[in-house]
Amino acid sequence: MKAEEIMNKRIEYIESDATVYDAIEKMVDRRIRSLVVRPKDEKDVYGVITGRDIVFRVVYKNLDPNKIKVEEITSKPLVCIDKDMDIEHVIKLMEKFNIARIFVCEQKKILGVVSLFDVMAGSLIKRARRGHFA
Amino acid sequence: MINPIPIIACGLIALSIGSNDTSNALGICVGCEIIRFRKAVFLFGFFVLIGITMQGGRVMRTVGKEILEINLYIVSISLLVSAILVIVSNWWRLPVSTHQVIIGSLTGSGMAFGVSINLDSLLKILLSWAISPFGALLLSIILYRIMEKTLSKLPFFQIERILKVLLLISSVLIAYNTGANELATVLGPIIHSGLIDQGWASLMGSLFVLFGAVLLSHRVIETIGKGITALDPYSGFAAQFGAGACVFLFTSLGMPVSTTYCIIGGISGVGISKGIGTVRIDLIKKIALSWLLTPLFSFLICFIIIKGFGMI
Amino acid sequence: MLKRLFFGGKIEQEVIEKIKRHIEILCSACETFKTAIEKRDKKMMLGVFDLEREGDIIRRNIISNIYEGAFLPFLRPSICKLVEIVDDAIDLVEDAAFEYTDSELDNETKDDCIKIADMNLKMCEIFLIAFESLLSGEDLREKNLAIRIYEKKIDEIKFDLIKRLKTKEVKSFWEGKMISDFIYHLTNISDLIEDASDYLQIINVSLR
């Protein structure tokens, strides 16, 4: 099973100078658990902000989300993989970097994201089809 | 000289067995469309004959010879009273066991006539009546467990096919028991009083049962959907076969027991296996009451009639 | 009668084959539908109508066979219900096909619809596998769960799709209605397949 087959193509973006509050709002409205942070200039790269980042670095520290900018808690650079990568390899990478999601990129373009949930669902579907379909 | 009264009475009781107890055996098979009604009835009659021919002797002996010294008067009165009681209670849809009525009547008549009653035999019979429903309950539970471990593991449609065969087998067993136990109870007295030869009695008795089944068919159809057929086929088999096996065991011991009560035991056994917590106490009470009163009632009536007419 | 009991199951076998064929028609309908949208081929969409008609014929055949005496009466309502649900699903594909031929979709909507159609197809395939598992005695639970996973994924797409469509401008009431009905029918197919899969589980446990 390849990364391309189970990835979620719905990617939501946010500007790096937006507030963490904006990020929270976007995540709630769009029902997603991570946002890709746009680079602030040509020298910058894409990053990602997740629920984990917000909870452990803002909420836990009792900081005001309105006062923290997204770029302060963004993880950079994005961990990217090729769309043809095998799921076993994807899982290894996720374990190695201790991340819950990994991005599928092709030549600087983000195609989609593979999360732990996608891997779990994909593996169940594969089990269900086992022995019946190629 | 052949006294016609007891023979006619037997015929009536046999007819009654045919009309009412056929559903015990066939209700589930006809309801599940495993077999058409016409064929079912003849299958039933056939196996009643087989049952009474092959194993009827034992129960016949117990009822006709071992309980008490039978004489023509006792036979006539008790069978006549039994026939009337059975027909009346069927008319009123009361669940009544022919075994209990007959043995109650025999004992009542015997006592009124002052004949010695074999209490040992009688006690064995009463014990059998008490134990058999629980035996059926136990056997059904065991059978259900076995089915869970074996039948359940098969693919679905295979279970369906096998179940149809199994249900037919258990119906045949009940039919056989109806001959070997129930009909034998009815015929025991007249055979052992020398009124009629065993072979003829068995044949005629089976025929009358068949008539009852054929003629009063609508009653069979009515009882479908009640009792055992309220269960799904899977549970129904466990209950019915458990009951049938239990009655078969008691028949081998020569004890006359009621299939109906055993089936109730079987259904309860399945209910317990499935984990149904609530038992219908009111129903149990009704059944227990009927179980106690039936033989008592027939006993008293015979006793009173005989003493009353001063036939001593 | 006895012959039927021991060597038979012939009429039951026939019914089972027909149910399988019925489900295969549902799969074909979904596949045709998806390909037609991908290629923007409205003519190809018409193939769905033929499949729906074939499905109807088979359904009627199955139901009459069942009431001619296949299977224990105890099981018949559940099996008939299963066939009805599959038939309803095929009907929905047909409805969606009809509405497609009468509407114009923008690219974003089209992409989402292709995703949904693709997942419908995958759901059908797993449903067929689930039915075969019922026949062979394999465990159905994983297949049932896989179908539910797809259904939730489709729900997610549907939610966002509808939100986006609400902002779209339509030139007339009927254009809007066509698109709305199209999306409604397209997204409900997965609900029915999920129902059918649940029914399969019900049948599976009814004789144990």
**Series of H and E elements of chain A:** HEHEEHHEHEEH
Low-confidence stretches of chain C: none
- Estimate the global geometry of chain C from the Cα principal axes: elongated
Q: Extract low-pLDDT stretches of chain A.
A: none
Number of strands of chain A: 6
Order of helices and strands of chain C: HHHHHHHH
Separation of the first and last Cα atoms of chain A: 11 Å
Principal-axis shape of chain A equals globular
Number of domains of chain C: 1
The CATH homologous superfamily of chain C: Phosphate transport system protein phou homolog 2, domain 2
Count of alpha/pi helices of chain C: 8
Strand order of the largest sheet of chain A: 1-2-3
The greatest interface here is: B-C, 25 and 22 residues
CATH topology of chain C: Methane Monooxygenase Hydroxylase, Chain G, domain 1
**Tally of contiguous helical segments of chain A:** 6
How many structural domains in the coordinates of chain A?
Answer: 1
Mean pLDDT of chain A: 90
Question: Describe it for me?
Answer:
The complex is a heterotrimer of chains A (134), B (312) and C (208). With 134 residues, chain A is an alpha/beta fold. Chain A has helices spanning 3-6, 20-30, 51-59, 70-73, 87-97, 116-129, and strands spanning 13-14, 34-37, 47-50, 80-81, 101-106, 109-115. Helix content of chain B is 80%, strand content 0%. The radius of gyration of chain B is 19 Å and the shape is globular. Chain C has helices at 2-7, 10-38, 42-45, 47-69, 76-101, 107-136, 141-166, 173-205. Chain C is elongated, with a radius of gyration of 19 Å. Chain C has 208 residues and is mainly alpha-helical. The longest helix of chain C is centred in the last third of the chain and has 33 residues, at 173-205. Chains in contact: A-C, B-C.
Keywords:
heterotrimer; B: 312 residues; mainly alpha; 11 helices; 80% helix; globular; C: 208 residues; Methane Monooxygenase Hydroxylase, Chain G, domain 1; elongated
Per-chain topology:
The complex is a heterotrimer of chains A (134), B (312) and C (208).
Chain A: H1 3-6, E1 13-14, H2 20-30, E2 34-37, E3 47-50, H3 51-59, H4 70-73, E4 80-81, H5 87-97, E5 101-106, E6 109-115, H6 116-129
Parallel strand pairs in A: 1-2, 4-5
Antiparallel strand pairs in A: 2-3, 5-6
Chain B: H1 4-31, H2 37-66, H3 72-91, H4 98-113, H5 119-149, H6 156-192, H7 198-215, H8 217-223, H9 233-252, H10 259-274, H11 281-308
Chain C: H1 2-7, H2 10-38, H3 42-45, H4 47-69, H5 76-101, H6 107-136, H7 141-166, H8 173-205
Helix pairs in contact in C: 2-4, 2-5, 2-6, 4-5, 5-8, 6-7, 6-8, 7-8
